[in-house]
Each structure stands twice: as structure tokens, then as C-alpha cells.
Amino acid sequence: MPLSYSHHAHVHAKTRKLFFLDFAVLFIAVWIGSVAYLSVETEQVRLLPDIFRVEVVLFILLQQLILLSLGLYELRLRESSRGIFRRILVAVGLSYFLVDVIVLNIFQFEPFDHYSVALISSISLILLTLFRVIVYDSQWLGFVKRRCIVLGTGERASIIEQRMRRKADRRDFELLGFVAQPGDKERLIRREKVYEFDEEALTSFVIENGVEEVVIACDQRRNTMPMDALFNFKIRGIQITDIIDFIERETGQIAVTLIYPSWVIYSNGFRSSNHFRESVDYFFNAGLALFILLLTWPIILLTALCIYLDDGRKTGASVLYTQERVGENGRVFSIRKFRSMRPDAEKDGARFASENDDRTTRIGHFLRKYRIDELPQLFNILRGDMGFVGPRPERPEFVKKYIGLIPYYAQRHYVKPGLAGWAQLKYPYGSTDEDTLEKVKFDLYYIKHRSIMFDILILIRTLEVIVFGKGR
């Protein structure tokens, strides 16, 4: 039975802490803004303005919802200070627009008016940026990294060194080094510290250095692991984690090249579907699809007209194109999208779209960048072929190829494909076999942990893709 850990699903303890700290920062911004605004308006200093209201809480939660949608509760966000400021600026700007332009014109949203909202939004921008860049990044207020060591220096252990090099990859843990084990095929650790310990020395090192987690990454475990030391660590409350679980927790993907059958059998997750869950999923997806269609039908009509005027009028090609895709349980269905490529784009056969693809039309790049080309798939959702969230549906010829090439690739078809997905959020544009392997790791993570709340989180985060033009 594999060594495992208690997974925190998708709402990590540090994310919850960050959420509540952001709430406090935004409440302080409302308080400072209200005091400053009322002091100017009434020429009297009121240290306790009327801010303990439901409206204030709703205003703050609206800002936090937008922060979530722009990825600012992603603990491993790979952004510079400038990138974080840009995201906070967009979030504050959107919340200001929603409150000032929409809410205040419809409801009495006390204690806010147009000027106080502008002042509070400016203060929120400053305080949130200072908090994220200075306080959070410097590990104050409890954002302390776990101290870890890795048992193993071979092929499995080297994945941590190769794939988790960035500061953002190690935001939750401090890696003290790797410990060589008899079961390693060869030593592949090149840049990190490597220790040669017997069991007694290993125990002393772990205790003296306050190690909180030991990651098992030996290439061969049978009769090679320091079992007495691991037993003592467990008794002391030190966490023992299999490398597959460690990578899953820290990266949000499942390392399919490391999986062994007993890990799948004994691990939590991979819940079965039932008729009730499927019905709830369909009505949720169909209702949301109808709502978006009502909002976007002018964009749909305008897009069709632009494609026709761009090249459809000359070539006689349709504004839509139809392709076969593989759906749930391997069932093939037809998908429709706005045509973003030339009519002869596949004259030499099927191939993946790539970044800056020369087959893209003049407006096609814009359509793909902001996901407008995928709006006709709302009708696939209404038909039940797809959901809003799930693995990206691929063409049968690609599926046939990758089932024989990538371990566990066929398992991504155990759920309905989706417009948005965990892989689309977490992995950049790619069209190679290696890119497909990386995306499968995220797809399997989604399948293992999927739930209504996880779907909602992915949908909210997909706004980041649309706002920053990261469509792929």
C-alpha cells in the first residue's frame, strides 16, 4: 500500500488564510477611505463611520471574487511584482466599474457614492499590492514553508529538481536536500544538496533541522528503505509523503509516468458518477449556456459577419466549421466553432493548431485569443455532448495516436469534455507530444478531484484567460 498524505482538496489552508487576510486589508481600505471622505465632506473627523453594514461586506466579497477570477489566490502564481500589480489593478478596476456604474445606479449601496468608491478603490489598490508583494511574499503572518527532505537521488527524485526549480514552485516548502538510497538506479541530482546518511544519522538530521515532511522518491523500495527511521518519524508526527502525492499536491497534476496500479487503487478521489449527479451537472451546464447565449448573441452575430466579410465572401467558405471530437466514454460527436483559419488549413492533413499559426486568418487570431471562436460550442453543451468544465475534446486521429503513446490517456474520456478545464488553466499553449503528456497530468488531476465547487473555481479562473487574452 503506497504511503500517502491527507489531501486538502482545492481550498488549501493557506488559501483560506490569504482570503481572510485580504478581507481584513480591504476592510481597512474601506475604513480609511470612509474616514478621509467624510472628513472632507463634513469637515469633521469620524473615526467610526457607518461601515459595519452588509453592503460593505458584499463590496469586499465582490472584490475578492474578482481577485479569485484573476488567479490571485493561486499560491504558486508565477508572476513578478509588476505582474501581481497588474492583476490587482484589473481586479480593483472591475470591482469599481461594477459598483460605480451598475450597482450605485440601481441600488442604494450605502455608505458608498461615486466619489467614495473611487477613493476606496484607490486605497484598496495600494494596500493589496503592498500586502501581496511585501507581507505575503516575505512569509510573514504564518506563511511559513514546510521543511522537507527527499529520500532518493535517482530518476524519480530528479523530477523534483528538474520540474520544481522556480521560487513559485517552492512557495509552500523549503527543500533541505536529497538523501541517497541503496535503491537508486543512478545519482541524477546535480544542483541540490545530496547527503549520505545511515538510519541513525538520518534520524539525527531530521530532528535537529526541524524537518516536517519526508518525501519518498526511491527508484526501488523493496528492502532498501530506512523503515525504522520512517517509523520513528511517523510516531513523532512528521509527514511521510509519496512522491506522486507530493507532486500532485504541489503542482496540481498527476505524474502519469510514475503511477503504479496500487497507488490508484488505494488513493482517495476518482469518485463514481450517478444519475442524480449527472442530472444536476446537465441542468447547471444547460442553464449557464442559455444565460451566456442571451448575453453574447450580439457578439455571435457580429463575429459571423466579420468572418464572412474577411474571407468568406471571396472563398464561399462557411463562417463555422465542423469537426469530429471524442467525448465521454469514447463516443464521437460533432463540434462547431467559428472558423479562425483559412478554408485550406488542413489540405496536408490534420495537425494541432500552434501559437502564431500561419493558417490563422486576419481576425482568427483575435477570436482564438479571447475564446470567441468557441461560442458555438454552447449548443454542444445544450445537446449534452460537453460540459463547461472538463478535459479538452480531441480529434479521433489524435486520440488513437496518444492512447498508445501516453500512459492513462484513455482515462481522460471517463468524463465529459469541456469548454474550460484545469489543463487549459495550468498549462500554456502547446502542440507537441510532450505538451499533450503534461496536459494529461492536469486532466487526470481534475478527474480525481472533480466536484461542483472545483468546476465553479475553474470557471471563475477562466475569466483570467479571457481578460488577459490567454486563449489557446
Descriptive notes:
The protein has 472 residues and is α/β, with parallel strands linked by helices. The protein has 3 domains: 13-136, no CATH class; 146-266, 3-Layer(aba) Sandwich (Rossmann fold); 275-467, no CATH class. It contains 16 helices and 9 strands. Belongs to the bacterial sugar transferase family. Residues 284-467 form the Bacterial sugar transferase domain.
Let me know the largest β-sheet.
5 strands, parallel
Q: Helix-strand pattern, N to C?
A: HHHHEHEEHEHEHHHEEHHEHEHHH
Q: Helicity range of the residues?
A: 40-55%
What portion of residues belong to β-strands?
A: 5-15%
Distance between the termini: 40 Å
Number of domains: 3
SS-derived structural category: alpha/beta
Low-confidence stretches: 1-11
Major β-sheet strand ordering: 3-2-1-4-5
Number of helices: 16
Number of DSSP strand runs: 9
Radius of gyration (Å): 26 Å
Global shape: globular
Overall residue-averaged pLDDT value? 83
Short structural description:
With 472 residues, the protein is of the alpha/beta class.
Keywords:
single chain, about 475 residues, Rossmann fold, five-stranded parallel beta sheet, two-stranded antiparallel ribbon, 16 helices, 9 strands, globular, disordered N terminus
Blueprint of the fold:
Layout: H1 13-42, H2 54-69, H3 81-106, H4 114-136, E1 146-151, H5 155-163, E2 173-179, E3 194-195, H6 199-208, E4 213-216, H7 227-235, E5 239-242, H8 243-251, H9 261-266, H10 275-315, E6 320-326, E7 332-338, H11 364-369, H12 378-383, E8 387-389, H13 396-403, E9 418-420, H14 422-426, H15 433-449, H16 452-467
Parallel strand pairs: 1-2, 1-4, 2-3, 4-5, 8-9
Antiparallel strand pairs: 6-7
Helix pairs in contact: 1-2, 1-4, 2-3, 2-16, 3-4, 6-7
Membrane topology: Multi-pass membrane protein
Main location: membrane
Organism: Saliniradius amylolyticus
